[in-house]
Amino acid sequence: MFTFFLLLGRFLEHRVRQRHALTWFDAESTLPGAVTTKCDALWVTVPRIQLQGGETVLVKAGATVPVDAQIVAGSSAVKEDTFNGEHLPRAVTTGDTIYAGTVNVEAALQAKVLGSYRESRLAALQHSVELAQTKKPQLAKLADRIASWFVAGILLVTTLTAVVWSQLAPEQALWITLSVLVISCPCALALATPAALTSAASALRAHGVIVRGENALDSLSRATHLLFDKTGTLTEGSLAIADVRPLGDVGTQDILAIGAALQHYSSHPIARAFAGITGTTGFKDVNYRVGAGLEAHQNGGTYRMGSAQFCRQLAPDLPTAPDKLLYWVALCREGSPLAWIGLNDHTRGEAGDVITSAQQAGLQVELLSGDSSAQGPLLARSLGISTVNHGLTPQQKMAHVQQLQTKGAVVAMVGDGLNDAPVLSLADASFAVTGATDLARTQADFVIVGGDLHAVIDTWRKARQCRRIIGQNFTWALGYNICAIPLAAMGFIPPWAAAIGMSLSSLLVVANSLRLNR
Predict the structure, then answer these.
(1) Residue 234 and residue 415: Cα distance in Å, rounded?
(2) Which of 153, 183, 258, 283 has the smallest number of CB atoms closer than 10 Å to its CB?
(3) How many CA atoms within 13 Å lie on the side-chain side of 198?
(4) Cβ proximity of 363 and 228 under 8 Å
(5) What is the per-residue pLDDT across 18-74, written as a single tens digit (0 to 9) for each?
(6) How far is Cα 311 from Cα 247, in angstroms, rounded to an integer?
(7) 3-state secondary structure string, 299-340?
(8) C-alpha to C-alpha distance for 393 and 413, rounded to whole angstroms
(9) Strand order of the sheet with strand 284-289?
(10) How confident is the model at residue 394 (pLDDT cuts 50, 70, 90)?
(11) DSSP of 27-86, one letter per residue?
C-alpha cells in the first residue's frame, strides 16, 4: 500500500514536470507565423520557419520582430521589455540589431536575417530556462527517505512474529500476525506530506495564490533570501504622469491638454499616460519624428514634444531636465519652452509593507532588475532595500542566484516578464504576479492571481506552518507505528482493534493537516 502511494506521487510529479516543459515551447508561438521578405525586388509573404540568414524582412510598425536581424533601412524604436523589463523602447537605426520577440513601436524597418530561431537571443533564453530546470535541486519528500526502512522493517517484524508465535502458540500465530500487518499504518506515513501540501495549497488558492509545485512549499519555508524584480512587480508596470514643471505662462492643465492632443497621434508607450486627459483641439499636420518626438501646428505656431535635443531645435532656451528621478518629456512652442512633464512607474502601494515584513521575518531582501536606468536604485532606497543589482541580462540574473545558492542560500524570487523566466526557474521558490507573461507564470511555483504582494509574505508564513504540520504528522505516524506494532506482535491487540487503530491514525494525520485551511 505504501509503495502504491509512493509510486502514484512520483507519477503525478513527473506529469507536472512534463507539462511545464511542454508549456515552455509556447514561447516560440508568440512569434509571427508568416513574414514579409524580399524576393527579386518584390515583397512576398512566406512562413517564418523558411527564413534563412541573409534574407531581408520587412517589420511593420506595431509588429513583433520575427528573427534576430540587422537593420538595413529605416529608423524606429523597439520595445525590449521581453529581455530587460524597461518601459521605454530603444531607438534603432541602420546597422543596429533587433531581436526576435521584441516589438517594433514606431516605423517600418527593413532588416537582414542573422540566423534561424534556434540561433536567436530568444532561443538562448529558452535554453537558459531548460538548463536551470535540470540544475534545480529536487527536494525529496520525507516519506521517500524512510520508505525502504519502513517496508523492510514491517516485513521483518511480520516474519519474526509468525515464526515465534508458530513455536509458542500455533493456534494464535495467524491472528497475531494479521494484527501486525493491519495495525502497521503506511497510510499515515504516505499521507503525512501530501495531506498537508494539499491543504496548504487549497488555503492559498482561496486567498488568490495558485501553487504549481509541491516542493516549492518546502523550499519557501527554508528561504533565506527574497529577490524582487522591479518593473511590474514592485511597480504597477505602466507609466503615469507624476509631475509637471511649467517653464512659461501656460498653466499645468493647459500643458496637459496640449500634451494629450499631441500624444493622441502616437502609439509610443508614453501616450498611454495621457489617455485619460482631454486634449486641446485645432492641431494640424501632426508628424512623428522617429526616436525624437512629435511635431504639430496650431494657429500658425509649431509645437514639439519629446526629447530635449529635439525640442531645443525649436526652443534653444529649454533648460535641462529637473532631475533623474523621473522620465522627463519636454514640451515647447516655437521659440518658447513650455514645460517638462515627468513620468513614472508608480510603486505598488503595498510594496513598502511587504519589504518591511520580509526583513523583520529575517529574510535578506534584494532588488534584481533588468532596468538600466537610475530608477532601480532610487526605488530600492525608498523601500529600504540595501542590496540592488540593476541593468542585468537574464543570464546575469541567473548567475547572481547561482552565486547565492553556492554559498548555501535558499532563494525565493518574485518576478514579472519573459526576461524573468530563467531566474524564476532556477530559484528554489518563485512567484509570478498578475500581469506576468504566460511564460513567467509557467516557470513560477506560485502565481499571485490578485496581484497583491502581501501574498508573498502570507505564502511564506503558510509554507512555514505547512512544514511544522508535516513534522507533526511524521512524528505521530512514526510514534504510532513504533508503539503499536510491538504491542500487536506481543499479542495484546486483536485484529479488530488493529483495524480501528490504523484508521484513526490516518484520520488524525488528515485532521491535523486540515488546520492549514484556517
Answers:
(1) 9
(2) 153
(3) 13
(4) no
(5) 443 444 445 677 788 899 998 887 889 889 888 888 999 999 888 999 999 999 998
(6) 13
(7) CCEEEEEECHHHHHCCCCCCCCCCCCCCEEEEEEECCEEEEE
(8) 16
(9) 235-246, 336-347, 327-333, 301-306, 293-298, 284-289
(10) confident
(11) HHHTS-SEEEEEETTEEEEEEGGG--TT-EEEE-TTPBP-S-EEEEE--EEEE-HHHH--
Three-state secondary structure along 201-225? HHHHHHCCEEECCHHHHHHHHCCCE
Cα gap 48→31, rounded to integer Å: 9
Q: Domain coordinates of the chain in residue numbers?
A: 31-119, 141-196+467-517, 206-235+348-461, 239-346
Cα distance between residue 397 and residue 127, in whole Å: 15
State pTM to two decimals. 0.69
Q: For residues 515 and 118, what is the distance between their CA atoms, to the nearest angstrom?
A: 49
**What CATH number was assigned to the domain covering residues 31-119?**
2.70.150.10
Please report how the helices 454-489 and 170-183 are oriented relative to each other, as an axis angle in degrees rounded to 10: 180
3-state helix, strand, coil in the chain (%, to 5): 50, 20, 30
The grid coordinates of residue 184 equal 502497521
Predicted pLDDT at 436: 56
The DSSP 8-state label assigned to residue 232 in this structure reads I
Alpha helices (H) in 106-185, listed in sequence order? 121-135, 142-168, 170-183
> For residues 274 and 286, is the Cβ–Cβ distance under 8 A?
no
pLDDT of res. 333 = 92
Structure-block grid coordinates of residue 229: 524584480
Residue among 334, 326, 260 at smallest CA distance from 304? 334
SS3 240: strand
> In angstroms, rounded to a whole number, what is the distance separating the alpha carbons of residues 89 and 81?
8
Q: Taking residues 132-153, report their average pLDDT.
A: 56
For domain 206-235+348-461, the CATH class is alpha beta
Residue 37's φ and ψ, nearest 5 degrees, are -130, 155
Cell of 315: 526652443
Superfamily of domain 239-346: Calcium-transporting ATPase, cytoplasmic domain N (3.40.1110.10)
DSSP state of 141: P
Fill in the amino acid letter for 232: G
